[in-house]
What we know:
single chain, alpha+beta, 7-stranded mixed beta sheet, 4-stranded antiparallel beta sheet, globular
Amino acid sequence: MPSLLPVSMLGVDLQPGKPPIVRANSTGDAASWAAEHRDAVRALVAEHGSVLVRGLGLGDQAETAAVFRRLASGLMTEKEAFASRRTYSDGVYSSSKWPPHQPMCMHHELSYTLEFPGLMLFACLGAPAVGGATALADAPTVLGALPTDLVERFLREGWLLTRTYNEEIGASLADAFGTEDRGAVESYCRASAIEFEWQPDGGLRTWQRRSAVVRHPITGRRCWFNQIAFLNEWTLAPEIREYLVDVYGADGLPFNTRYGDGAPIGEDTVQLLNEVYQSHTVREPWQAGDLMLVDNVRTAHSREPYEGPREVLVAMTDAVRLADCSPTVEVITE
């Protein structure tokens, strides 16, 4: 039976600039601890938007998967991934494959899909020597810090994600859709409000327009919820952007973002978005064995550059439908 212990019994540590931290008094059975304290841990996430649990001593993939399943309401299978992952077991993945020296800027996981995780689960099995924190930012606070005219434009128009799939760069069709069958990919796109066009070389280009601001499905608070800055060309390292544009053309980038009417987003706007995120970022360096839960709608997350081996496992749960979050942009599926 889940524990009915009050949240205060977990001894949450609240410090400026850091996520809430709970010190687990685990006797070595992390899965049992997770089952006993599931309600209290999830209550902390509901209150603060995230919680880092330290002291569980998570040491391998099987133990981590067991902990994830004790805390989750059913693990989700990732669709429309923007980068490849390793699958350890059903619903348990590696972190996205991304160059260690490049940051993964603030974003909300799968915020461009019609159904996305309400809760993210992270576990560190191996901490890097330098950097590599999964940093966090409160989405309502970020929304309130953005210029009113910019927010109003995104409220009206939403944002547009463009993607180009091929066998050379970015996520492959199999990574994103779980299949390379054209018919299955087309059916998924039609059901998911994604426009698509097959290229002469067999590649695929897609466009999908989504709301940039949503209401939290439980609290109703407005949240800046998207991947506008992270998946934009101006967030790429300059030398990488120049190379990709030179080889594949401005319209052939693996992903890019635009205003909802299709107009390009300027470098200055992307820089502003990332600066606002940075000014509201909290972080705590990973230690091996750590567990972190993040409300994916209320809280954006990033991955900072790092040196040395880093192993972080990821799971997604508590599926949320965009339609239940008061989207400001109409989405039409076939």
